[in-house]
Amino acid sequence: xxxxxxxxxxAILAAAMTIAALPAxxxxxxxxxxxxxxxxxxxxxxxxAACAKEGGxxxxxxxxxxxxxxxxxxLIVDLFPNPVAPPAPVPTPRPEPSTPPGNNQxxxxxGGAIISPTDLIAVQPPRAVTGEFxxxxxxxxIDGDAGAVQQIAxxxxxxxxxxxxxxxxxxxxxxxxxxxxxPVGVVLAQLAADGRTQRREPNHIYSLQQxxxxxxYAFDRIALDAKQASxxxxxxxxxxxxxxxxNPALTGVIAAQFDAMPDVxxxxxxxxxxxDGLIAGVGALEGMAPGARIYHARAFEGGxxxxxxxxxxxxxxxxxxVSIINMSFVGPKNDLLGTACRNxxxxxxxxxxxxxxxxxxAPYGYPAAFDGVIxxxxxxxxxxxxxxxxxxxxxxxxxxxxxMVAPSGAGSDVVTGTSFAAAIVSGAIANLLxxxxxxxxxxxEKALAAxxxxxxPKGRDNDFGYGLLDIKAAEAAKE
Length: 479
What we know:
The termini are far apart. The strands form three sheets. Strands 6-7-5-9-11-12-13 form a seven-stranded parallel β-sheet, with helices on both faces. Strands 1, 2, 3, 4, 8 and 10 form a six-stranded antiparallel β-sheet that branches. It has helices at residues 2-17, 34-42, 48-52, 62-66, 146-156, 184-191, 218-221, 270-280, 307-319, 335-346, 418-435, 441-451, 471-476, and strands spanning 133-142, 159-166, 171-177, 197-208, 235-240, 254-259, 293-298, 304-306, 324-327, 329-330, 350-354, 373-379, 397-400, 404-408, 411-415. α2 (34-42) packs antiparallel against α10 (335-346). It is an alpha/beta fold.
């Protein structure tokens, strides 16, 4: 007993001095079955022969991304450059139902009821969101049943605030509350001593990527003929704010909606409405891929969200059998988010994310900096880089994102930010999948890189990535 206590005290002391985030595994891609691909990436339940066929990712090995990776406690939280709004309340999940919801359900048509998460157990609402992560919570994946979760909570003096089975993580995700004021880093170190805990992370806070704000010049700059543009029947998931689905630009565009934070009132709808409209808007504010079907997950309010809410939205998106997931937000590196992205990519989904608006000296922004995620920076009508854009080896491609007209909750607005550049790329990729539905995520990523119009220094660089998106050339590119 004395030795055990000494070991635990040493772990606590070490954690209080420094906390290192777990590194994300390098992304590789293959045409194997869904589960085999996930198992190979996670290093479990797959034979060496099956995994030996896994290929490399053109985005680069983990070395390039890890060089600029952010480790706790030096975290990044991207904020709007507009006046800072009051902290948004933290979402409180709903109680667990008697039977779990079915998978791959598209949900009701636009205008109907919005689906809310139903596989969560809520015990106590957490405190308001402040700083870089929720100060009295940790996220943990558990090897065990509900009994094991309760035993862990009792052993470490924690509260079970929610728990659910995550499809993309492939395990039970538990949100533990810390009722006695211990630092998050100390609790993470304590939990590391329990073999039933698989991954342990802070509940990081993420921010939408919108900068201050006429005809949409994006069609011309990315070589997409507006008269021929189409993403008909391509399924695109968008994780963002709530939307104004009465906006004429979204008529018939929204296939289903999901509210990952049902107990937080919807106040802001502009950002999500603009992103959806730029991807698949119709009418006067036509998007890049009219006809695409948008599966919209509300996971942000006041420009903020937390890791558990975002993971809930990602799991829902994966269940909708979408081909593309648009993530116009940025936050710190988080191993749970990295695993979810890696497994979504293994299932064949194309992941597109905003590179960030924090400026040239900002640390890497995630999820964009994970391997297998297409990190998008923003350019203007003359192909100049948006000054606020993040820079780094993880930047993959450039797309229009400065002073573009887009639908908003009030009708329309002029928008700027890597959020909107990401939406342009998601819509462009929907065109590629409409033209060739069997085209793989790997092939699309390689084609975008090989055909981009070089900007800045010759070759791939930290400002523009491979260069400006050229969708006409990418469509013609062969595997």
